[in-house]
């Protein structure tokens, strides 16, 4: 009866061993599978997060580049506005200088301010009267002679003109009354001194042109004297108080 008991024990021992082996193998396989799944999930999670982060950086970079472009465009626009303002300001300064010079020149021409400068003095005197002459007026300086000289001087660039020290302008009137000339209501006897501020050489050359004003005056028996290169001073125009 004892031998059968020994076989039964051996069979039981083998069953326990196999069971333990299978249990360990199952545990190992289950652990390996769970570890593999965890690693796979970790890899998938890490890859997705990195991709999303990279996309976020890329989008932020694109947005920043667009903002930079907008800022550059705005800066260029502001610089253009500043340059335009500077040009307009410079043009305004130049125009102001031109306007100031024109205004000063106009005041000088209108006789509103005293003036001084180089110029030419033209003296007109009555000619020597001969008793056998038919008409003594042929030897007298008339307003037409004075007008001829004044017009020639203005054409030659005279900036200001006076007669016997009295400033004249475009509205002045000159009337001959016998041996005297009335300038804006004030009478002056001969000789008549016409002074002009301007380039002396130009004014003199204009007066001395062949067949010009000076020759005509001499033909009318008028004594003409030119004195250039003087510093001439003129007061402002006489105004009614």
TrEMBL record:
Ranges that cross the membrane: 12-33
Coiled-coil stretches noted in the UniProt entry, renumbered to this chain: 54-95
Keywords: Coiled coil, Membrane, RNA-binding, Transmembrane, Transmembrane helix
Classification via InterPro entries: DUF881
Gene3D superfamilies listed in its UniProt record: Protein of unknown function DUF881
UniProt cross-references to PANTHER family, sorted A to Z: UPF0749 PROTEIN RV1825, UPF0749 PROTEIN YLXX
Record family assignment: Belongs to the UPF0749 family.
Protein name (Swiss-Prot/TrEMBL): DUF881 domain-containing protein
Organism expressing this protein natively: Planococcus antarcticus DSM 14505
């Amino acid at each position: 009866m004892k031998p059968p008991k020994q076989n039964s024990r051996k069979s039981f021992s083998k069953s326990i061993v196999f069971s333990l082996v299978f249990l360990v193998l199952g545990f190992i396989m289950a652990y390996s599978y769970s570890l593999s799944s965890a690693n796979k999930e970790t890899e998938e999670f890490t890859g997705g997060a990195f991709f999303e982060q990279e996309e976020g950086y890329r989008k932020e970079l694109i947005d920043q580049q667009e903002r930079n472009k907008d800022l550059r465009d705005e800066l260029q626009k502001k610089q253009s506005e500043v340059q335009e303002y500077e040009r307009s300001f410079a043009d305004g300064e130049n125009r102001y200088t031109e306007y100031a010079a024109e205004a000063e020149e106009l005041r000088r021409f209108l006789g509103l301010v005293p003036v001084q400068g180089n110029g030419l003095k033209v003296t007109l005197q009555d000619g020597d009267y001969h008793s056998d002459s038919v008409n003594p007026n042929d030897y007298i300086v008339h307003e037409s002679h004075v007008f001829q000289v004044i017009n020639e001087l203005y054409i030659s660039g005279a900036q200001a003109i006076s007669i016997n020290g009295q400033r004249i302008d475009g509205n002045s009137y000159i009337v001959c009354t016998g041996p005297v000339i009335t300038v804006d209501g004030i009478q002056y006897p001969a000789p008549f001194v016409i002074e002009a501020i301007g380039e002396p050489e130009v004014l003199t050359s204009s007066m001395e042109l062949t067949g010009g004003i000076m020759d005509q005056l001499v033909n009318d028996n008028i004594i003409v004297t030119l004195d250039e290169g003087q510093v001439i001073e003129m007061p402002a125009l006489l105004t009614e108080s």
